Predict the structure.
Amino acid sequence: MNVVQEFTANMYGIKHGVSVNEARYQIFIRTNSAKEDNDTFLKRVKSFDSNIIPPCWSSLMQKILRTIYVNSMWLQATDQLCLKLRPENCGWTLENNYLKPIGFIGDQMPLKIDDIAQMTDNENDDESENQPVTSDESDGEC
């Protein structure tokens, strides 16, 4: 998964091998750093365009899972049963007989500063494990 993160960061102009969360931070700091002494942070953040930063790792994983699901469906389009994966395991929820994408898992804002430091430590542990995502069509999971 590190390759996916590096590729995504490259698409947003971050050339060094960093995670998407680190790329988000670098782009945010670059675009919102005060250019002048009297330039306030709040004034710059109010006009911030979130489309210029990559999705966070949690959202990117959900997008990857949805892509795997749709790709699997297209690859099996000529089969009588083209849905071999369960959408609930691939970044979708089923609400009122409609599939809705899962955009983000977890808290969107940290509750306190300690949560940010703990999340950073946990992300570093997760990235070091570097386990690839595989699909096993027999049990319908992504």
User: Anything to note?
Assistant: Residues 57-75 form the longest helix (19 residues). Residues 57-136 form one domain. The radius of gyration is 19 Å. Strands lie at 92-95, 98-101.
